Amino acid sequence: MRTSTVVMLGLMAMGPWACSRDADKPAAPPKLFATGAEEPRRGAPPAPAPVFTHLTVKARGATTELERTPEGWRLLSPVEAKADAYVMEALLKQLSSAKFKATVNASPSEADLKKYGLTSPTFTVTARAWLPDANGEGAEDPSRQRTVTLVGGDENPFDGSVYVRREGDAAVYAADGAVRYALDKGPFELRDKAFLGQLDLASLQSMEVTAKNNAYVLMREPDGMSWRVEKPTQTRANAPMLKGTLMRLAEQQALSFPQDTAATREALGLDTPVVDARFVAVSGEPIRIRMAQVTRDGEPVVHVLREQGTRSTLAQVEARTLTLLDVDIQELRDRRVLVFQRDAVRRLEFHPGGQAAPVVVTRGAGNSDAWQVEGPGGGRALPFRMVKVLAQLEGLRTARFVEAKVERWEPYGITAASQRVVLRDADGRELARLWVGNAVPGMAQIRYARGSGPDLVMVYLSQLANIPTRAADFLEPPPADPDGGAPAP
Asked: Where is this region: Disordered (predicted)?
């Protein structure tokens, strides 16, 4: 009892001292972007982050103005361009959540500011934002508007932190090195390097390309999905290949953005480009892309000029960009042997060749997966077998184009007696037809063939090996005789 009394008296005596110790503790370092809002109590949901609307970044000897738009952040000056989404994400994250590590000097002198590199700052960022209320609103409320200017100086070599000062606050703070990395950005770092914009095949109507080795014109078909080559010859175009080519082109990153002037264009050879391409969109102004190459210090240097209406962008890119559109007719051509919509097929006729009767397989009405083999020895066809056959026919690809617009097919073994497959729709209209001809001389594993197009092509024998020729190829085999066919006793 005596001991408890002593302890209680001691705690009562220490109370004022302990309170004074807590009062003497320095306050936690403030956030970079001070909003004046109270910190939420422990356990309470976090306060909504400020919504930044405008930034002025002075760094790397230039001033960059940026603004948030419904489509994302954009540079307003020194050029008008889309901002780099990843760079902006890192910058805004530091502004909205980073805190100073410590207070370095609460009342610095001019000599101190010079020592910290703050009389001639490395970077200055002025950020404007608004604070959402509990409902996420308040963008137009003047009382919720905030503007903060941060000035960054030298790096502390001891721990990599950076000296920072805030406008209206005399103190010098230390901020983590990540703050400097995110905020110390010039126009090039802040700008989106993928400058060519979206070149989506689905949004284009035509393409005309003149390159070093090849020139071609492509047009969208009336169905809105397929493409055709108009020049140098008329044929179906390889749409997946075109889509991939445009994606690779649009993904090219600028290595630099030279000033776009008439003198610069002439010096870089863009008045006589190596590649000159024109893309006509379904809607909107056409896009023209020119590429040229010069030699510097014995190395090729490639520049691309993108023009659309009154807007233009000049950029240096990797040398390989020069070859992306320089593709020949063999790459441009559709390599599918047969072109048809699988769901439209309701009847297949498999002609084994010679005078043999065809094997006919028909599909039930609607979207039924029930297939029936017609004729003697027929019956219900195995659904998985039909799926496999249609996939095989749809997947046939040309090994090589031989001749366009053939006048005489007989020398290649393509006649009325050839092995062939005919695909028809519900009304009996022909959707596609495959003719299989002779073996290519000196190439036993390759056959001449004729498909949906007018060209003579070559097809690997392995692609044709499993095309059915008998009704039994579609049917489930009969069950084995349990007694092995032994005579009855």
From this structure: 29-49
